[in-house]
Design goal:
This protein has 397 residues and is α/β, with parallel strands linked by helices. 40% of the residues lie in helices and 17% in strands. The strands form two sheets. Strands 6, 7, 8, 9, 10, 11, 12 and 13 form an eight-stranded mixed sheet that branches. It starts with 8 loop residues before the first strand and ends with a strand.
Length: 397
């Protein structure tokens, strides 16, 4: 693991045993891992007990919020309203302030987080100060395998970069995702060498035929699901009853991909059951197939916020930012943008669209108008962590 620690980075690795919760920190200037708060064993046991109770509370509130979509909005609001408080409790349980104190010097700019078991399900990056650039790793072993891959010698504004876009596969009974259409249209126009698989064309055969064709970026807008009972059956949902599972994905050599973006609901992990061993899901599956970076989400993200983050993320890549920096800046941007600034952003995006995209142009104009009518221009409508903390990036820094 020490091989992954460069001059400006550190690794934070958590371990959950049946009896304790430990935190290990690897820094470039420390010959051995630092064991955080190495005190009496009973204290670590107490920390595990608090964490397990916290997970139960999270599971109950989040499960109610998902049911709330069909039943009552009150249940959904409960989880969202409590999200900031829940994350503060998790920060205290994991003693994030002590971790920051241990690594907080001028040389450490990047953090690699290696969660364990249930910790994969939560936005640990949101517990740290904004000045760190943070990526996740499913395991250190996968990262060491990644480090042996050939270096990518292109930039994202290179016209030869091959882009594969699978766009909001439609299923009977689904709600129309207008913002997903806007997201796909704007992002696809950034990459001249783009293959687009539209909503109706997104069959299992079409996606599986396209994936191994040496693309550099795969962008998926739609829905995903994690299968706790059989992780190999975790899936990206395609048109009607079609799907592509983790088992299917793992058959491919995907070493040509620098970025896979799963701009879908809950593609990182879902559910309210306990992970009892190592986490294996869609994200780690893509990484294991040779993909350098995977961007995914931890919960059902509001459509507009997701589209805005994704568009800013790709614009950041084309400006020469690294993948982790581009995502950090995109989420910080949406977190702090005011209504007035967002209305101007909509106007700028409208100006970039051709005249024949009249439906999307009118949709964006309505959004800008609704914003300015609904909120004060100084308000930051997406400041709540529900809108930005779900986005994660997995892969080597």
């Amino acid at each position: 693991m020490k091989k992954l620690v460069k001059n400006y980075s550190a690794i934070v690795y958590w371990h959950l045993s049946p009896a304790a919760l430990h935190t290990f920190i690897l820094k470039p200037d420390s010959p051995l891992p630092i064991v955080l708060a190495e005190t009496e064993f009973s204290n670590q046991t107490q920390r595990l007990y608090k964490f397990e109770n916290w997970v139960k509370d999270w599971n109950e509130q989040y499960a109610n919020s998902r049911k709330g979509k069909d039943d009552s909005q009150k249940k959904e609001i409960n989880w969202r309203d409590n999200l900031e408080g829940m994350l503060e409790k998790l920060s205290n349980i994991l003693d994030i302030s002590a971790i920051v104190t241990e690594i907080n010097n001028n040389s450490i700019q990047n953090l690699i987080l290696v969660p364990h078991r249930d910790l994969h399900r939560f936005p640990l990056h949101a517990l740290f100060p904004d000045n760190f650039t943070i990526t996740y790793l499913p395991t250190a072993k996968i990262a060491l395998k990644q480090s042996k891959l050939p270096k990518w010698n292109h930039t994202y504004n290179d016209s030869t970069v091959k882009f594969l876009s699978v766009e909001h596969p439609f299923r009977s009974g689904d709600v129309s995702l207008e913002f997903a259409e806007v997201e796909s249209e704007i992002i696809a126009r950034m990459f001249p060498n783009c293959t687009r698989i539209s909503s109706e064309q997104a069959t299992q055969n079409a996606v599986e035929s396209a994936l191994p064709n040496n693309y550099n970026i795969f962008h998926f807008t739609g829905h995903g699901e994690y299968n706790f009972h059989n992780p190999a059956s975790s899936e990206l949902k395609l048109v009607e009853k079609d799907k592509i599972t983790l088992e299917n994905i793992c058959k491919f050599d995907l070493r040509s991909y620098q970025v896979v973006t799963l701009a879908a609901c809950e593609t990182a992990i879902t559910g309210d059951r306990t992970i009892t061993s190592e986490y294996v899901g869609l994200t780690s599956g893509f990484i294991g197939c040779g993909v350098s970076h995977v961007v995914s989400t931890l919960w059902t993200v509001e459509s507009a916020a997701s589209a805005l983050v994704m568009i800013e993320f790709y614009q950041g890549l084309q400006q020469g930012k690294t993948e982790a920096v581009a995502l950090r800046e995109a989420t910080n941007w949406i977190r702090n943008i005011t209504v007035d600034e967002l209305a101007k952003w909509y106007t700028e995006q409208i100006a970039k669209l051709p005249e024949n995209q009249s439906i999307i142009r009118r949709f964006l104009q309505r959004q800008a108008t609704n914003l300015t009518n609904k909120f004060k221009i100084s308000k930051t409508p997406y400041n709540h962590p529900y809108y930005w903390a779900a986005f994660t990036i997995t892969g080597n820094l």
